[in-house]
Description:
Blueprint: H1 4-13, H2 18-22, E1 37-40, H3 46-51, H4 58-67, H5 71-76, E2 80-82, E3 92-93, E4 96-97, H6 104-113, E5 121-125, H7 127-134, H8 142-147, E6 156-159, H9 167-172, H10 175-191
Parallel strand pairs: 1-2, 1-5, 5-6
Antiparallel strand pairs: 3-4
Amino acid sequence: MQTASEIFNAIMADPQNAAYTAAGIKPLYKIDPAARLLIISQAPSRNAQETESFWNDPSGDRLRDWMGVTREEFYETGRIGILPLDFYYPGKGKSGDLPPRKGFAEKWHAPLLKLMPHAELALLIGQYAQHYYLGKRRQRTLTATVQHYQDYLPQYFPLVHPSPLNYGWMKKNPWFEASVVPDLRRRVRALI
């Protein structure tokens, strides 16, 4: 089994990441052997990449609120691993950030997951994470997948992205904050 340092160096040396490495940009993810909870999402935001701190934006604030954790618990407990589908900011598209690069998670998730043997639950944030990890098991829409989150427990907990762009979705779906968020908080608290 590769060590964390060996995997990090391999990611930096991968030709797929050459432009990032040449610019001095490091891959952004967090592994910890004691992690019991994983956060799997699309890719770091531009702000996260610039500050080298994932979920360091309004989306992160909302995610921590949903989880019922403080910034200190989120960043410093060692109980939470962060594994985006791409470890680099993909750039801006017409209606938001570009999707994660194809083939990236396939190459790097498996060796990193082996380094977190105690992870019990993965929060699958957004459609890309749900598509990758749930495949054909997911519902026809993201909303339906999140509504039926209990179908994927105890391994996965699908969530909508906490982006400010999704505030309209949350207003249309009050059941999310009324019933899904409290269950998420209970499960997170039990793990950390």
